[in-house]
Amino acid sequence: MASPPPLPSSTSVLSSASSLADSLFQRSLDDLIKSLRSDPSSEPSIIARSLSEIRREIRSSDPLTKSIALQKLTYLSSLHFHSMSFAAFHTLELLPSPSPQTKRLAYLAASLSFHPSTTELLPLATHQLHKDLTSLSTSSSSSFPFLPSLPLHLLSLASSADLSSHLAPDLVPLLSRSSPLQPKAVAATYRVLSLCPSTVPVLFKPLVDCLSSDNPLTVSAAVGAFCELSAPPNDPAPYLPLAPEIYRVLVNSRSNWTLIKALKIFSRLVPLEPRLGTRIVEPLSKFLRESQAKSLVLECIKTVVSCLPTHTEAMRLAIDKIKELLSSDDDPNLRYLGLQTLGMLAPGHLWALEESREVVAQSLTDPDRSICHEALRVMMAMTLQENSIESCTLLVRQAAKSDPEFANEILDSVLTSCSKDFYELVVDFDWYVSLLGEMARIVHCTKGDEISRQLVDIGLRVRDARPELVRVARELLIDPSLLGNHFLYNVLSAAAWISGEYVEFSKDPMELVEALLQPRTSLLPTSARAVYIQSVLKVLTFSCNSHIDESSSLVNDTVIARMLSLIEMTVGPLAESEEAEVEDRVRNLLGVVRLVANIKDLSVDKDKDGMIYEVVRVMDALFSDEMGPVSANAQKKVSVPEDLDLKDNLADLSEFISDNDAAMSRSNPSILFYPQSCNASEEVEVGPTSVAESTSLKEHRKRHGLYYLSTDKETTEPELTEDYPRVNETLPPSNGDTTRRVKVTKLRPTVVKLDEGEDLATSSSLSTKVEAMKDDPLSGAIKDVLLGKNGNGASSSFDASSSSQGKGKDKVKGKEIKSKKGEEGESKDRHKGRRKHKHRKEPAPPVSVAQETPVIQDFLL
Amino acid sequence: MIHFVILINRQGKVRLTKWYSTYSQKERSKVLKELSGMVLSRGPKLCNFIDWKGYKIVYRRYASLYFCMCIDKEDNELEVLEIIHHFVEILDRYFGSVCELDLIFNFHKAYYILDEVLIAGELQEPSKKTIARLIAAQDSLVETAKEQAGSISNIISQATK
């Protein structure tokens, strides 16, 4: 137990009166804790009081008082998250204290609270850290042999680039000497290296030597360091020459921790150098078969599955182990991990997934949320064209039974995977459309937007699915209970649009009109109502037309008369509506109704009233053009006429635009207009009040403009006037210039796809990421060091196996070629959306990867 | 690597936090709130891994305390579970049947021990005996230094400075 601090000695009498009071009556940490625990309700006030006390006490000159104050502050900061930055200077003052107790306290406080981002006083600690780091070599510190461990901790946690570069030389002796501090020094070194690549020449070689040290702890730490250094988003390619060393560690080491780390490194190196794969298969299989430690087995499985898909025997072992994991009923951890690794098998070895389909389906219903997620992921990975129907039906059924969050997740994954690649997975669109309708009815569904988008999209692209669409839409419209659900109004407006657009497939127009005009539609928002009214107009037109043509048996006199009267009755009052959308369309509708009001008399005398005929024919012609999907790049394809002078920016217009014109200035006060040329972004002049982009992004855009996605602005017409909220039906008619590529598959209905423009997004984002990867200063520096080493050849103390010499030479060349491929492979990892918020590196100018003349560093010889 | 270590008790009070990546104070309290919500609401039979914002949280409950560690997506979860257990065993050995109260009052000691077990987010010392020895050595050093400071001769020399 911690002993209470000694009573302040008489030395304090000599200090000034205020600090006397401070030190005599200072509360210790124990007192603070006890007071906090005794009265939980007044915690904030106790904390506030202590903080003010601490602020006073910490300024005293007596080191003891200071250290106790610091101790309390550390406690408060660490557990109650108060900022400690005001005490930074005092912490620094206490760092050189001779008393180990105080020193430890001060270092602890420093490592918990210092950081380059929170305090600028870090450089002041340099000298003290230097002294402490080198204290082993001076004789005075024999009483405290572990002294350097304190600054090592501080370095590893709170270092900045400057501090690292100053203190790097001090780390070298600690790294080379075999002492209990060596592992700590290794850990600090790796942090220093990643913060400050310029220290690489100094620190890298000692670090590599640690790999071959006698102390197993050091080896373990060194392997761990390389594992972290080569972790994505860093580039693992520079560490390839270390592979033989790490292989030796893999084979010889007994410690599971070390083995796991070594395996991780290999899993990153094998994609770059497949021959490594053949070498490690043996030890891996041995571990898989014999090891008792589940963690090691897990790591082996992961390595085999991700890097060695071609070695059938190892794969078979791994898959057996996975099945074992999956079947452990009593340990949910193992089941979770089994599912996770099963998911990793996905693209290549679907047969293994198929074998475990039952287990996966069962896991979907597991009470454990994490397991359900994994099971969902595996299910989605298993879905192909052949089994998509069963999988999706199963999933949607499951969604209906689950809690809201998981249900929405399931729906989301089903929707995204089915709509990928223009509905690649869907063979039977009728089934899919009815599935969409079912999804909309699921109680907690919040995916209305996506469902409605897909409904309309399918309607536009897949002609054969339209009858089924209309049927589904009719069901959705008729049901009055859906009108109250505000998540669904998108779906309902999509359904209304579909019914209106493809009314020729519907069986009973009267029913549609009734459904569209039912009283509960007043619950819908304006945009949806507008769509409803417009659909009524379309249905009416169609009905009138078919009445005149007498083509449909459903539409006769009475029907038309009823329709007209119903419309007038329900829609009439809306003519006074305050919403411009609704009012506009209502008036249109009423106008048409009045024009054809006498249509019921037509059956008597057909040739009379040519006007009604005219009206009906014109209206029908209006709505009979088929609308197709428009590519996102449609606007680009229109070539700018020669004599048209487009101003670079329309900022002049801003004086005409007031704040009330919210439509245009909604997100961006200035108006950007990109001229129609390939290098569009290089000629962009951003308006003076642009708030959209920061300067670095602008510069990046200018440099790599070719790879940027087309922004929305590029597809709008020059007249930015009609910008009210988009209603589903106002898709502009397709441009004559767009090329249509119709994909024909055997049993599948045709899905209209446009030019490749719509897929441009994915490929361009891949290439930007590859560019960014190459600009890594750390890997560049390491490549320099190691290439210098390899180019020499003689200094390599690699394993004496016969192939390694040849491998060494090949690696240098192979590395350069394969590092590019490796970067492509790494970008796939990027896509998993990993976020790392440590160590932001600024993109340096690209390092030339192929160095033909390596610089031979003297100290490496 | 391990990004942070947090110890929370069943009522949601924090007993120890150690951060191996940069988090501002505000971020820290936010993370803590989210974490306590997630971990405390899990039932006993569920698995010990949670997916969170692209990272994984591995947690384990010992008596009234939840030991949580946050790792990257590709790290080995079982290994981290073992690290947690390792740390708990060391605490147990040091304090002798450790309970939450020990950690509350020996806040700094817990930190020193954690610093011996983990450094820079990685496991440092897999042997419990060594760590126990190290910490004992450090403790004895501190004790002797304190004794020296408290000795009469020292007081006299301080007074006459």
From TrEMBL, chain A:
It holds the Pfam family Adaptin_N. It is found in: Endomembrane system; Golgi apparatus. GO terms for biological process: Golgi to vacuole transport; protein targeting to vacuole. Residues 830-841 have a biased composition (Basic residues). Residues 47-593 form the Clathrin/coatomer adaptor adaptin-like N-terminal domain. One of its GO terms (cellular component) is AP-3 adaptor complex. Residues 793-861 are annotated as: Disordered. The keyword Membrane applies. Residues 807-829 have a biased composition (Basic and acidic residues). Residues 794-806 have a biased composition (Low complexity). Keywords: Golgi apparatus, Membrane, Protein transport, Repeat, Transport. Adaptor protein complex 3 (AP-3) is a heterotetramer. PANTHER family: AP-3 COMPLEX SUBUNIT DELTA-1 (PTHR22781:SF12), DELTA ADAPTIN-RELATED (PTHR22781). Part of the AP-3 complex, an adaptor-related complex which seems to be clathrin-associated. The complex is associated with the Golgi region as well as more peripheral structures. It facilitates the budding of vesicles from the Golgi membrane and may be directly involved in trafficking to the vacuole. It also function in maintaining the identity of lytic vacuoles and in regulating the transition between storage and lytic vacuoles. Belongs to the adaptor complexes large subunit family. This is AP-3 complex subunit delta.
UniProtKB/TrEMBL annotation, chain B:
It is found in: Cytoplasmic vesicle, Clathrin-coated vesicle membrane; Golgi apparatus. Keywords: Cytoplasmic vesicle, Golgi apparatus, Membrane, Protein transport, Transport. GO terms for molecular function: clathrin adaptor activity. One of its GO terms (biological process) is intracellular protein transport. Transmembrane segments: none annotated. Adaptor protein complex 1 (AP-1) is a heterotetramer composed of two large adaptins (gamma-type subunit and beta-type subunit), a medium adaptin (mu-type subunit) and a small adaptin (sigma-type subunit). It is a peripheral membrane protein. Pfam families: Clat_adaptor_s (PF01217). It comes from the Eukaryota. It comes from Rhynchospora pubera. The lineage of its organism: Eukaryota, Viridiplantae, Streptophyta, Embryophyta, Tracheophyta. Belongs to the adaptor complexes small subunit family. InterPro entries: AP1_sigma (IPR044733), AP_complex_ssu (IPR016635), AP_mu_sigma_su (IPR022775), Clathrin_sm-chain_CS (IPR000804), Longin-like_dom_sf (IPR011012). GO terms for cellular component: AP-1 adaptor complex; cytosol. Subunit of clathrin-associated adaptor protein complex 1 that plays a role in protein sorting at the trans-Golgi network and early endosomes (TGN/EE). The AP complexes mediate the recruitment of clathrin to membranes and the recognition of sorting signals within the cytosolic tails of transmembrane cargo molecules. Residues 1-140 form the AP complex mu/sigma subunit domain. This is AP complex subunit sigma.
